[in-house]
Amino acid sequence: MTTEINAKIVKKLRDKTGAGMMNCKKALTENNGDFEKAIESLKLKGMAIADKKSARNTNEGLIYTYIHNGNKLGIMIEVNCETDFVAKRPEISDLAKNVAMQIASNAEIEFISSDDIDDAAKEKVRQFENSKDDLDNKPDEIRAKIVGGRVEKSLKAKVLLDQDYIRDSNITVDAYIKQTIGIIGENIKIARFVRYILGETEQD
C-alpha cells in the first residue's frame, strides 16, 4: 500500500532528519511513502556522501563548551567544517553539543579515532592486560590471543568515534557525524577536546 506523499509528511521527514525538502520528497517517493524506510534511505545516502567528502579540508568551525549537571565537569570541543557559513548552522552546534555530552558520559574516552593511539599507549595497555593473574597458567599461544582481544576491546573503549552514540545506540558516533555530513553537504571533523573535572590538576 502506497502512502500519499504530501507536503505535511515531507516536512515531518525533514524535521526528523534535517535533510532538505527535495531529498525528503525523493526518499519518500523511492520508498512508496514508507516513512521509516525513507529515514533509513536518507541515513545511507548521508554515509555515502560523507565518505566522498572525507578528504576535503576543514578550516572553519567552532569551539563549543558543555558544562555537565552539577557544574563539576566540563568539556571543550573543537568541531571543524569547510566553510564559515556552515559553521553557523544549528546542525553544527547540535553536533558539537551531542558529541561533548558523549565525552562527558564516558570518562574512558581519550582519543578521537584509533589513528590517534600511539605505540606507547598500545604497549601500556598490552602490559597491563598481560600482567593479569588469570593468564598465569595459559599456554603462550592462548595467552597471546586473549591479551590481543582484551587490548583491542580496551583501546576501542577509549576511542570517541567507535562508541555507541548516546542518543541512538544503533549507530556509532562516527556514523552520527557522517549522517550530519550527508545533511549539510560538507565534511566535518572533531579536531580535539579537553575534559575539565573540578579539583583535578595536570598531575592527576
From TrEMBL:
**What GO molecular-function term can you cite, just one?**
translation elongation factor activity
Query: Which Pfam families has this protein been placed in?
Result: EF_TS (PF00889)
Where it mainly occurs, coarsely classed, is mitochondrion
Q: Which InterPro entries match?
A: EF-Ts_dimer_sf, Transl_elong_EFTs/EF1B, Transl_elong_EFTs/EF1B_dimer, Transl_elong_Ts_CS, UBA-like_sf
* Locations listed in the record: Mitochondrion; Plastid, Chloroplast
Indicate the segments forming the Translation elongation factor EFTs/EF1B dimerisation domain, all copies.
8-200
* One Gene Ontology CC term in the entry: chloroplast
What CDD domains is this protein classified in?
A: UBA_EF-Ts
Name the PROSITE patterns for this protein: EF_TS_1, EF_TS_2
- Kindly state which keywords UniProt assigns to this record, in alphabetical order: Chloroplast, Elongation factor, Mitochondrion, Plastid, Protein biosynthesis
Q: Which HAMAP family match?
A: EF_Ts
Q: What does this protein do?
A: Associates with the EF-Tu.GDP complex and induces the exchange of GDP to GTP. It remains bound to the aminoacyl-tRNA.EF-Tu.GTP complex up to the GTP hydrolysis stage on the ribosome.
Q: Member of which family?
A: Belongs to the EF-Ts family.
Database matches in NCBIfam families: tsf
* Protein name according to UniProt: Multifunctional fusion protein
* Gene that encodes it: tsf
